[in-house]
């Protein structure tokens, strides 16, 4: 029994969870490894701000002193100073952009790799509950959407804040009364920008969720399997309409996100742009007996500063909006980073120098549903001595595959324990466990890469000779050699350029290359025809000596030679023994064997190794006519004869 695949939705934030201030502190911690470079950026920002406010004072000297008094030498120096300030400021800005962008990209790299590494540690249950497109969207779209925020917003915030502070100080130095006029509406502007930011944050969260839905639809419907299903079911038009509806919803959210608070922010810009006129008006009102109290040079310099204040002030308000918007993206990323790791490696893991391969399941209970933990397996007690074979048989949903998942620790038991050579698998180092247990599943997965690259996924340093030997063991070398590109042939998306039997043999060759002492075959030869199955299993049988094998059988005729056969029913072992013992018992196993023979007879063909059930069948095993035991588990033999 396997859990249904459903969409995973993060739980609503509990009352005690961190609020935005705590989230901001967590975001700032992302930049901690790069604080030295950020300190350099801060110095450049401060220097740039100081240089920027010098120019208006030089301008005042030009208008009030150099030009009225005809001091051409001073005028030349002041003009050169203004040009030099512009050049120095440009250099500072380029250096600041280079360093801040580099830091931002490193932070994004850290986030991407942290999320990917964290997901690699999640149990199989998480991926059976979560759509692949959702995971891809979190890594690609959400982190990608934070790029501008991470790479430039932090620097822009510091730069604009420093510029605003320096400019305001310079304005106060020129005339404090005009400064008050310029800043009187600033609190209103801050309030407006905060409201706009909250609105955009909400819309951004909705947009990213819809983007994840769209990504999932693309990933599922435009895969090879999705295209085949859509066309054979006549649903291509329906899928196109569904995609169009989802895309239309996303387009609407994009428009809403872009226009949220746009008019309010434009009002701020209009008011800020109109401030010079208000400054001139205020200066005119201060005139006494027709003579202005503020000199022309001071007035022009102040307006210049006020205009210089306009850009960073508006940018600062916009940055505040962007920061609040990006909080929605950070929240989605942190949701994944905060997922509890269900299969954590112990603090002091055990590494076995040599694995014999004895496997034991002791009073094992297991369930996929945490609220009903004992729903799949209950009270399992099995011992598989090193080098022996165990076959698991039973009706669909009896728990065979679930039991096999526990040995490589794809899931953890609810109670009891699973051991290899007497060591609980939960105490083993991940690398030891991965090297000890090999799995060949009925659902073969191949990467969109060459045959050689797919095989080397099991052993990156494998030589060409080792690849050929593994392929020969899996009875696939001759087919590979007949291809124009040989081992460099691309297998295509999920291996769809190859037949089911060819993919299975490639998977077996991959496991042969790994050479684990414990092998699990989950109906590993289910995609093979009788002839190919016999050829593969005969080759594997020759290599199976000394390997511990657990097989989930799809044809009972293939597991007669197993040292033990366990019959499962509703998550419990109801019969255990050899093929001969279970036949003599005349219980569930005998009934399954009779039904298999009857089904195949009804289909018009006798099963490989078919036999009458009863005492005569036991005797006929040694006769060998039509009863060739094609092997214990396909991948058992895939591993060679010595560790």
UniProtKB/TrEMBL annotation:
Entries under InterPro entries matching the protein: AAA+_ATPase (IPR003593), ABC1_TM_dom (IPR011527), ABC1_TM_sf (IPR036640), ABC_transporter-like_ATP-bd (IPR003439), ABC_transporter-like_CS (IPR017871), P-loop_NTPase (IPR027417), Type_1_exporter (IPR039421)
Major location (coarse): membrane
PROSITE patterns linked to this entry: ABC_TM1F, ABC_TRANSPORTER_1, ABC_TRANSPORTER_2
Protein topology in the membrane: Multi-pass membrane protein
Pfam families for the chain: ABC_membrane, ABC_tran
Keyword Ribosomal protein belongs to the record: no
Any one GO BP annotation for this protein: oligopeptide export from mitochondrion
Record bears the keyword Membrane: yes
Ranges that cross the membrane: 38-62, 74-92, 164-192, 266-283
Protein family per UniProt: Belongs to the ABC transporter superfamily. Siderophore-Fe(3+) uptake transporter (SIUT) (TC 3.A.1.21) family.
Protein name: ABC transporter ATP-binding protein
């Amino acid at each position: 029994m396997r859990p249904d695949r459903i969409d995973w939705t993060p739980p609503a934030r509990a009352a005690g969870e961190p609020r935005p201030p705590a989230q901001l502190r967590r975001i700032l911690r992302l930049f901690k490894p790069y604080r030295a470079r950020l300190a350099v950026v801060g110095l450049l920002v401060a220097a740039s701000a100081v240089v920027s406010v010098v120019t208006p004072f030089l301008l005042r000297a030009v208008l009030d002193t150099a030009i009225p008094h005809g001091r051409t030498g001073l005028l030349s120096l002041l003009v050169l100073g203004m040009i030099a300030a512009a050049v120095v400021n440009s250099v500072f800005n380029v250096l600041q952009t280079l360093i801040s962008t580099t830091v931002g990209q490193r932070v994004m790299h850290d986030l991407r790799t942290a999320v990917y590494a964290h997901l690699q540690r999640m149990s199989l249950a998480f991926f059976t509950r979560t759509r692949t497109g959702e995971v891809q969207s979190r890594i690609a779209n959400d982190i990608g959407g934070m790029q501008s925020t991470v790479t430039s917003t932090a620097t822009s915030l510091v730069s604009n804040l420093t510029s605003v502070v320096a400019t305001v100080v310079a304005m106060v130095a020129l005339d404090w009364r005009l400064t008050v006029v310029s800043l009187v509406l600033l609190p209103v502007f801050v309030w407006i920008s905060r409201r706009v930011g909250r609105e955009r944050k909400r819309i951004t969260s909705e947009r990213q969720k819809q983007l994840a839905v769209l990504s999932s639809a693309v990933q599922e419907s435009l895969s090879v399997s999705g295209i085949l299903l859509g066309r054979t079911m006549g649903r291509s038009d329906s899928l196109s309409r569904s995609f169009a509806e989802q895309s239309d919803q996303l387009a609407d959210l994009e428009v809403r996100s872009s226009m949220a608070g746009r008019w309010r922010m434009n009002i701020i810009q209009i008011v800020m742009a109109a401030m010079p006129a208000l400054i001139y008006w205020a200066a005119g009102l201060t005139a006494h007996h027709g003579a202005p109290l503020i000199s022309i040079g001071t007035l022009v310099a102040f307006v210049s500063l006020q205009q210089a204040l306009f850009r960073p002030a508006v940018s600062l308000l916009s940055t505040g909006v962007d920061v609040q918007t990006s909080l929605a993206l950070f929240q989605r990323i942190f949701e994944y980073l905060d997922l509890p790791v269900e299969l954590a490696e112990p603090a002091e893991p055990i590494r076995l120098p040599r694995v014999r391969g004895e496997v034991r399941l002791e009073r094992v209970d297991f369930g996929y549903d945490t609220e009903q933990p004992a729903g799949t397996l209950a009270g399992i007690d099995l011992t598989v001595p090193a080098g022996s074979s165990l076959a698991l048989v039973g009706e669909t949903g009896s728990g065979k595959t679930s039991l096999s998942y526990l040995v490589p620790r794809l899931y953890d038991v609810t109670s009891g324990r699973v051991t290899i050579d007497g060591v609980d698998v939960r105490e083993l180092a991940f690398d030891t466990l991965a090297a000890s247990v090999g799995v060949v599943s009925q659902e073969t997965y191949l990467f969109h890469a060459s045959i050689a690259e797919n095989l080397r996924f099991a052993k990156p340093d494998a030589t060409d000779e080792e690849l050929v030997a593994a392929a020969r063991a899996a009875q696939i070398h001759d087919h590979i050699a007949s291809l124009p590109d040989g081992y460099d042939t691309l297998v295509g998306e999920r291996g769809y350029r190859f037949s089911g039997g060819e993919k299975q043999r490639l998977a077996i060759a991959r496991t042969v290359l790994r050479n684990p002492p414990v092998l699990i075959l989950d109906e590993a030869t289910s995609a093979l025809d009788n002839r190919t199955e016999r050829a593969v299993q005969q080759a594997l049988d020759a290599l199976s000596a000394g390997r511990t094998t657990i097989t989930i059988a799809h044809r009972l005729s293939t597991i007669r030679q197993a040292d033990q056969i366990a019959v499962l029913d509703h998550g419990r072992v109801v019969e255990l023994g050899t093929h001969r013992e279970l036949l003599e018992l005349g219980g569930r196993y005998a009934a399954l064997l009779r039904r298999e023979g009857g089904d195949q007879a009804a289909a018009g063909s006798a099963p490989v190794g078919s036999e009458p059930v009863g005492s005569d069948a036991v005797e006929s095993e040694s006769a060998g006519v039509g009863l060739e035991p094609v092997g214990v588990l396909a991948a058992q033999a895939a591993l060679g004869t010595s560790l």
